[in-house]
Amino acid sequence: MNSSPAGTPSPQPSRANGNINLGPSANPNAQPTDFDFLKVIGKGNYGKVLLAKRKSDGAFYAVKVLQKKSILKKKEQSHIMAERSVLLKNVRHPFLVGLRYSFQTPEKLYFVLDYVNGGELFFHLQRERRFLEPRARFYAAEVASAIGYLHSLNIIYRDLKPENILLDCQGHVVLTDFGLCKEGVEPEDTTSTFCGTPEYLAPEVLRKEPYDRAVDWWCLGAVLYEMLHGLPPFYSQDVSQMYENILHQPLQIPGGRTVAACDLLQSLLHKDQRQRLGSKADFVA
After folding, report:
1. What is the pTM of this model?
2. What is the CATH number of the domain that holds 100?
3. InterPro entries, from UniProt (predicted)?
């Protein structure tokens, strides 16, 4: 991840006495024995996410447990701290998973997160193959609200995909996994780190050009297309062919969609980021 623009430095973790500075989210009195860890609900590069029941009040949380050794070995401290920083800001938005508090042991970091129990959007989409337009529109509107909120904080999300969209018990979306977020990006700023998931990469990222927050609106278009049609818009099993499709092939929209849906997809999946829907006014509720 690139360093932040001048004036907005990324938080630098301290390693005094083997500790990492967890900043304002730290709860020095918390410890692993406060929880009954029930099952693994997610895995990542540096640890796993566990469903946990807090013994004091019976409340359920998703606890992200990260191995310090892995983080330090791969020099990912700034990545982890950036994710923590974004999580702290999320508690004020209903469609973003929030960090309640964090703590550590000599070997591990613990992030106590909201538990979202409706499963990944990816799971529901795989099971049902595609969604009817009203349902897809509902999810897309809530995701757009979440992305717009992050942008209002000068954060680019950069990894929107069905696996990172959870559903809560009432059927609302909750965006999760902020490891690729870039903080401190003003409306006119750009960044250039090549990152994301192949199926959802915007053309400007593939061209390795400086890009702005419009990449998130491309990703929203790709996710909306997948919800409606079962596959991302330029998908190929051959990744190099898929990249070629993203860069050069016109968008093909199968029949049976409303004019409004087609117009929205065309506008979000515009290959020129300057002409893409959201590139000028961003998210306007």
Report:
1. 0.86
2. 3.30.200.20
3. Kinase-like_dom_sf, Prot_kinase_dom, Protein_kinase_ATP_BS, Ser/Thr_kinase_AS
